[in-house]
C-alpha cells in the first residue's frame, strides 16, 4: 500500500518526515527510537485509536490501512520516544476522501489536486510550529542545566559551612588548650619552659608579664650553671610562696599535684573560692 494511493494524506506524510528530521537533530534519536500513535475521529468523535506505540517503519502502512477502513475526517498523530515513552510531538490533521464515483466532474480533476474540504497547514505554519517546538526544547534544556548548577552550588555551600564549623571548633579548642597550658605553667614552675606559661611565683606575687620577660634571661642563665642558684626571699610574703613551691615539688605525688592543679583552675575562675575552702576546712577542724 503506497502513499500515492491516498493523496488526502500527503500533508500528513510530509509533516511526519519533518518532525522525524527535527527529533533526530534536536534529540539525537534514531528511527528505531521514535514511535507513534494515532487517534482517528469523524464528526468530532473518536472512532479508532492505536492500542500500542508503533515503529516508524510501519507508519505508511498503518495510517493508510486504518484510513481506508475508518474513513475519518481527522487524524491526531503523537510521536514518542520508544525507550522512555516520552511524548515528543503531537499534531492533528484534517483529511477527506475524494469522491470520484459520485460526481463526474471530479473524475477530471488531477490526482495531485487537494480536496475541497482539506484544511492542511501551509509551509509558514509548519515552520512556526517547528520553531515553537524547538524553543520549548531549548528552554527545558536550559532549565535542567540551571537546576543542576543550583544543586552543585547548594552542595558546595553545605561543604563550606561544615568546614567553617570545624575551623571554629578548632580555634575554640586551641584557645582552651592555650589557656590551660598557661594555668599549668603557673601551677608547675618546672614545666613552664615546655608550655611557655608564667611561674607560680608571678601568679601569687602579682608580677606582670614584662617583669617575667625581664627575669627570663636570668633564669635561663642560672639553669645552665653547674650548681643551682637559690634565691633568698625578700620578705615574709615571698617566704610563704617559696614554702608552697618547695612543698609541692618535694612532698606531693604526681596525682596530688594534678588535684591541686585543678583547684588552681577553679581559683582562677573565682578567687573567692580560696576563702570558702579555708572556711570549710576550719569548720571541719572545729
Mean pLDDT comes to 76
| Number of β-strand runs | 5
Shape: rod-shaped
How much of the residues is beta strand, in percent? Answer: 5-15%
* Main sheet record: 5 strands, antiparallel
What is the C-alpha radius of gyration, as a whole number of Å? Answer: 48 Å
The level of helicity is 55-70%
The SSE order reads: HEEEHEEHHHHHHHH
Structural class by sheet pairing and helices:
alpha+beta
- Provide the low-confidence segments as ranges: 98-116, 190-210, 219-223
End-to-end distance = 123 Å
Count of alpha/pi helices: 10
List the helices and strands and how they pair.
Elements: H1 10-27, E1 34-42, E2 45-49, E3 54-55, H2 59-70, E4 74-81, E5 87-94, H3 104-107, H4 123-187, H5 192-195, H6 200-205, H7 209-224, H8 236-250, H9 254-269, H10 272-285
Helix pairs in contact: 1-4, 4-9
